[in-house]
Amino acid sequence: MKTAFITLLALFLGMTKSIAAPTYGFSIWGKLRYPADFTHYDHTNPLAPKGGHVHFGQMGRFDSLNPFIVRGESAPAILMTIARLMDDNYDETGSSYAYLAEKVEVSNDRLSVTYYLNPQARFNNGEAITSADVLFSFEALKTKGQPMYRSYFADVIKAEALGPHKVRFTFKNTHNRELPLILGQLPILSATYYKDHPFDGVNLTPSPCSGPYEIEKIDPGRSITYRRVSSWWGENIPSQKGRHNFAQITFDMYRDNNALFEAFKVGKIDIFSESKANRWKTGYDFAAMTKGLVKKVELPSRLSNGATAGFFFNIRRPIFQDRRVRQAITEVFDFTWINHTLFYDAYTRNRSYFPGSDFEHQGVPTGKELGTLKKYKNQLPSDLFERAFSLPDNVNSTTTRHSIEKANKLLKEAGWVFENEILHKDGQPFRFEILIADQSMERVLLPFVDTLKRLGILVSVRLLDMVNYTNRVETLDFDMIMAGIPQSNSLGNEQRNFWGSAQANNPGTLNYAGIHDPVIDELIELIISSTNYDELITSAKALDRVLVWGYYMIPYWHRSVNWIAYWDRFGQPAISSLYMTTPFDTWWVDIDKDHKLQESTQEEPTKLSWWQRFKDYLYNLYNRIRG
Fold it and tell me: Which of the listed CATH numbers 3.40.50.720, 1.25.40.20, 3.40.190.10, 3.30.70.1270 matches domain 2-195?
C-alpha cells in the first residue's frame, strides 16, 4: 500500500512539474524587465491626452490595404489598425507583453505555447475576437502571405483552438526558442470578413480593425486618414497605455522627398523625419524655423545603427556571381569623399551587417566564434581567418589609386578583359543598372558611376516611382538596389528570410542578393537554436563575418541619432525609447502649444473666447482624469 502511495505521489509530482503557469509576458532568455503589476512602459506618458489631427507625409502611392501579401503597395501605417497577440517592448532583448492575449503559457518541455485571449477584445464593428480569428490569421499568412511568414512559422506543426479564447501552437522541436515571441507578433484579422473577401486580393475596401485606429477616409493613391477607435478595447492594457494619442492621423503622398519637405515647411505636414545631412545642416532657415514655430531635435537611437543597409548585388545575375567581381566594385566606392563632400561628415561607415550591436564581428575570429567557423574552413575564404575585414578609406589620391589597382586585379582574375575602354567577358560588355526611388541619391551615385567607368564598367542609374520600384524589387527584376533591412536586438527566425537559401528566389523575398549558401543556412539555424544570449552572440558574429566576406552588398552608413523636425504643437514623454523606429505613437497634441501655434501662423490672430478656453480646460482635465 505504501509503495502504491509513493508511486501515485511521484506521478502527481511529475504531472505538476510538466504543467506551466500562464504569465503576463514572455522572454526568450527568461527575464522580463517589467513586473506583473506594471502599468505602462517607461517611454510612455499614461496621462497623455487624446485628441488632435496630425498630418504626416509619405513618398509614393498605394493601391492596397493589405500589407501582408506580395501584390500591391499597401497604404502607409495600415498596421495601426491591427492588433497583435503580444506587444514587443523595444527597450529589452527578446521580450513581449500582454496585448490581445492577456496571458501566455509556454510548456515546460518548450514544445508548445498557449495564448489566452482578452475576452474584451473586439473588432471596430463590435464583433468579438476569438480563437477562430487567430487560427485564420495564422493559416492565411502562412499559405497566402509574404514569403517570410512561411519561414517564420516553418517549425509550427499544429495550431488549435482549446476554447473560444484559448489557442495552442505545437512545435516540431525545442530548438527554436524564439517561436513564442514570433507567434506573439501575429496580426489578428477577421475570419468572418475574409469568408467573403479574398485574402490575397488587392483592393481598398477596409476590413474590420482590431487595433487602435480605423480608416476614416481614403483618397486613392493620394492620402489616407485614420481615426482613433471610440472606446477602444485595449485602451488600458499596460503595453498600450499612453500610446495612440492622436484622434486623427492623415498621411499625404508625395512623389519625391523634396516635395515632401516643401510641404512640411508651409505647415501641410506636422512632423518630418530628415534623411539628408546637407539639408539638416543648411536647409532649415525658412521663416517658421527662425520664428521658433518649428523645432529640430536629434533623438538618440540604437535602431538606426542596427539596420542591414547598403547597395545589394543581385547575384542571380551572371555578372555578379563571382565574389571577386563584387569585391572589386566594393573597393572603388569612395565613402570618405561622399561623407565629407555631401554629408558634412555626419555618418559612420558600416563594416557589419549588424553595426553598432552586440552581434557585430570584430578583428579576426577567436574563441568560441573561431570554433564555430572552423567547421566550414574549406568552404570559406582563407582571408576570413587571417585578417580583419576592412573597407577602403580613400583619404587621398594615393589610397584611391590603390583601390582602383586592387579592383583591376580582381576583375582580371575573374576573367574580365579590358578592350576599347570597356570590360568584356565571353564577348559581352560589363554593364548593369542601379535602381533608385529617391532622386536625391543620384548625386551620391554619379561619382561612383564615373569611377566604375574608369574600370571599364558601364553603369546606368534609373529613377522609378515607388510603385514601379517596389514591383521591380519584389519580382527580383534588378541588378543592384539600395535597400535596408531593420534588425532587432534579438536575432532569430527572420534571418532565414534575409539570407536563407529557401527564400533566395521567392518573389517578395527580403533576401535581395539571392544568397544560396549552406554555410549561411547552418549559421542561421545556430542562431535560432541558441540556448542563451552568449550563444546567440557567438553565432551571430560568425554569420556577420561570413556575410561581409561574401561581398553581397556594398555596406551603407549610419548615424547614432534620428533627425526629427516638427511644428511645435506636441507633448512628449520624459523618456524616449532607443529602439523605436519613430517615437510618434507616444506623442500627443498639447492644446496650449497648438493654440499658440495657430495664433502665430494666422495673419490676423483671433483671440479665443473665454468659453472656448474653458471648454479646452475641461477637455484637458477630463483626459488627465481618464488617463
Answer: 3.40.190.10
